[in-house]
């Protein structure tokens, strides 16, 4: 029976996503579907799956990897508050902090109300459960909407991060106190110290690991599991919960800045095998027949569902101070998703005999119902705003014969372009020709910030004075702009200042190189020049971040007949493409195609799922 149960669970893990794709069930998270199938296969349904030591071990590994990957999802750079484009607009960090503080207040009121009505006796546990937010579900939903990097997406994401981290620590303290280990509470400090030591111990070696790892060693993955088991064992020894140890391991791994392929492989291991077993077995262990036979527990389910939603009303009010009423309401409902941490929390409290199996089942079923409806409400209510539709923000420094044509030619569907000048004469000359032309008294970190142009994707310093372009590039570096391009007007071979910019990651272009390259192309490849300058076709670049297309051969792409892939840039190396070349995450495709097809193709490849 052990082997049969194992076979049925693994088969279910394979069939569930296939059936969801077949019947186009996109609004319900896969985790919820797996729990529902587990309920059908387990005690409540046909009782086809029996819990055994093997499935229990795999399920425990599943929850450990789930917490580890949740820790890896945290983008610590988001906690570095960036100046807002408008002084009256609060930053995502401030909004998220206010939203979560409100959640804690409302959760406290609801928890004590349940205690005084006799529905649930433990207010501290209820506060932890009502304030949790499923970070993984939130991230997946925001990625599907392609707003994860936008202000609204960042605000919701940071709220979810707080809704996972704070309750996680709260659960650890709660479990320590209720487990009779209050005197050992200070030992939790050792767990955090161990995480810090591991971070600094492997910071430099991990860079070296990335260089020497190969298919048969996978040093990055071995290090990840070493971190997991080290911190999980330390957590057990100091009286903390294993999920806190694995969550900290995920945070350490994230701070080591692994390559995106490492995160991909870890995600594949977790969500490809262990985590589905955890969700399915959660459903298997639920006994809804016993739950429905208990009138008090049955009455508790709708009350808990209401509490999960009511606790997240404050974010709606907070978000409205910056975003539209419609999107604020959608964001508030999305923060109501709670499945990720509720499951391990209930598992921990059951082992401590703090709550009954009936109460645990009521909380899990309520969380499942909320996790079904919350993403559906978000997807149906949320409407992409103007700022959500912006693909890349570009700032061109200097209004002249170089920048003005570029500003006019860059596609409005892909870029929002601002041209900045300090020369009033040029401002008056080109103001009617450029949509977003800005006149500043000077170009500096402060002036760019005040104009709301510090948080952009690309900045190109295109004055005709090399010295000024150097200063502008330095100001952009101080502002933390991702990509900086500087124009070099001098044809001198040696230019120390430009060499310094190159060393800092700034891209340099100059008229001499452009002219010679164009002339050479006209002589050697006149057809290529016609293609580059023509209006019918062009040469394009796109980064592959849609997991739907990773792991597939070029010949299998549904639009491969409309494009010709010339080269692929992978981890700073060029590779020659063939029909059997398998795409990897973050590959950069250089391809040609008709302009009317390119927009759709770029959107598909760049869509983060």
Molecular structure report:
The two termini are 38 Å apart. The protein is globular, with a radius of gyration of 27 Å. Helix 14 runs antiparallel to helix 15, helix 16 packs antiparallel against helix 17 and helix 23 packs across helix 24. About 1% of the residues have low confidence. Helix content is 59%, strand content 9%. The protein has a 6-stranded parallel beta sheet with strand order 3-2-1-4-5-6, with helices on both faces.
List descriptors.
59% helix; 609 residues; four-stranded antiparallel beta sheet; six-stranded parallel beta sheet; 10 strands; alpha/beta
**What portion of residues is helical?**
55-70%
| Count of extended strands | 10
What structural category do the secondary elements indicate?
alpha/beta
Q: Uncertain segments of ≥5 residues (pLDDT<50)?
A: 81-88
Individual helix count: 25
Q: How much is the average pLDDT?
A: 81
What is the straight-line distance between the termini?
38 Å
- Strands of the widest sheet, in order across it, are 3-2-1-4-5-6
Radius of gyration: 27 Å
Characterize the biggest β-sheet: 6 strands, parallel
Inertia-based shape? globular
Q: In percent terms, what proportion of residues is strand?
A: 5-15%
What's the layout of helices and strands?
Elements: H1 2-22, H2 30-41, H3 53-72, H4 92-116, H5 123-130, H6 135-145, H7 151-178, H8 188-212, H9 219-237, H10 242-255, H11 260-285, H12 288-292, H13 295-310, H14 313-319, H15 325-334, H16 339-351, H17 357-381, E1 392-397, H18 403-409, E2 415-421, H19 424-430, E3 437-439, H20 445-450, E4 458-461, H21 466-478, E5 483-488, H22 496-503, E6 507-510, H23 511-524, H24 526-533, E7 537-543, E8 563-570, E9 573-575, E10 588-594, H25 595-606
Parallel strand pairs: 1-2, 1-4, 2-3, 4-5, 5-6
Antiparallel strand pairs: 7-10, 8-9, 8-10
């Amino acid at each position: 029976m052990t082997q049969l149960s194992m076979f049925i669970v693994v088969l279910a893990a394979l069939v569930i996503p296939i059936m969801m794709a077949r019947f186009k069930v996109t609004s319900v998270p896969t985790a919820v579907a797996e729990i529902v199938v587990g309920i059908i296969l387990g005690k409540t349904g046909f009782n086809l799956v029996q819990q055994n030591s093997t499935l229990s071990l795999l399920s425990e590994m599943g929850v450990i990897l789930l917490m580890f990957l949740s820790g890896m999802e945290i983008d610590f750079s988001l906690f570095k508050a960036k100046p807002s484009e408008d002084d009256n607009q609060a930053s995502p960090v401030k909004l998220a902090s206010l939203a979560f503080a409100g959640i804690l207040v409302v959760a406290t009121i609801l928890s004590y109300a349940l205690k005084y009505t006799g529905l649930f006796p433990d207010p501290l546990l209820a506060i932890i459960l009502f304030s949790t937010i499923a970070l993984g579900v939130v991230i997946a939903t925001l990625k599907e909407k392609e707003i994860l990097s936008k202000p609204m997406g960042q605000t919701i994401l940071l709220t979810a991060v707080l809704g996972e981290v704070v309750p996680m620590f709260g659960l650890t303290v709660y479990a320590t106190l209720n487990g009779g280990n209050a005197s050992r509470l200070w030992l939790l400090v050792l767990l955090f110290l161990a995480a810090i030591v591991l971070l600094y111990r492997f910071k430099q070696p991990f860079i070296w690991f990335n260089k020497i790892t190969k298919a048969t060693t996978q040093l990055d993955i071995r290090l990840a599991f070493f971190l997991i088991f080290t911190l999980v064992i330390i957590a057990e020894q100091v009286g903390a919960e294993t999920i806190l140890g694995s969550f900290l391991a995920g945070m350490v791994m994230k701070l080591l800045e692994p390559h995106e392929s490492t995160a991909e492989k870890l995600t594949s291991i977790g969500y490809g095998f262990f985590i589905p077993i955890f969700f399915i077995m959660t459903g298997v262990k639920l006994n809804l027949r016993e739950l429905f036979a208990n009138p008090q527990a049955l009455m508790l389910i709708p009350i808990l569902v209401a509490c999960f939603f009511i606790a997240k009303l404050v974010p709606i009010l907070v978000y409205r101070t910056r975003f539209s009423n419609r999107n604020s309401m959608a964001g508030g409902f999305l923060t109501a998703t709670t499945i990720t941490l509720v499951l391990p929390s209930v598992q921990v409290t059951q082992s401590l005999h703090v709550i009954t199996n009936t109460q645990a089942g009521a909380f899990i079923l309520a969380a499942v119902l909320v996790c079904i409806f919350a993403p559906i409400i978000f997807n149906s209510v949320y409407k992409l705003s103007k700022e959500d539709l912006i693909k890349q923000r570009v700032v061109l420094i200097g209004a002249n014969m170089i920048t003005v044509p570029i500003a006019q030619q860059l596609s409005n569907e892909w870029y929002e372009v601002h041209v900045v000048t300090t020369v009033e004469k040029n401002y008056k000359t080109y103001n009617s020709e450029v949509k977003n032309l800005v006149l500043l008294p000077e170009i500096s970190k402060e002036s760019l910030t005040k104009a709301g142009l510090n948080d952009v994707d690309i900045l190109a310093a295109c004055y005709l004075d090399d010295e000024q372009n150097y200063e502008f590039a330095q100001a952009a570096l101080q502002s933390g702009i991702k990509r900086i391009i500087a124009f070099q007007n001098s044809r001198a071979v040696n230019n120390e200042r430009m060499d310094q910019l190159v060393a800092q990651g700034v891209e340099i272009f100059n008229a001499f190189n452009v002219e010679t390259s164009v002339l050479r192309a006209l002589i050697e490849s006149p057809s290529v020049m016609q293609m580059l300058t023509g209006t019918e076709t062009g040469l394009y670049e796109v980064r592959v971040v849609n997991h739907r297309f990773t792991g597939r051969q070029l010949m299998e792409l549904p639009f491969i007949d409309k494009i010709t892939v010339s080269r692929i840039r992978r981890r700073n190396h060029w590779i020659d493409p063939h029909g059997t070349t398998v795409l990897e995450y973050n590959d950069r495709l250089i391809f040609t195609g008709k302009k009317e097809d390119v927009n759709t193709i770029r959107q598909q490849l760049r869509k983060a799922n």
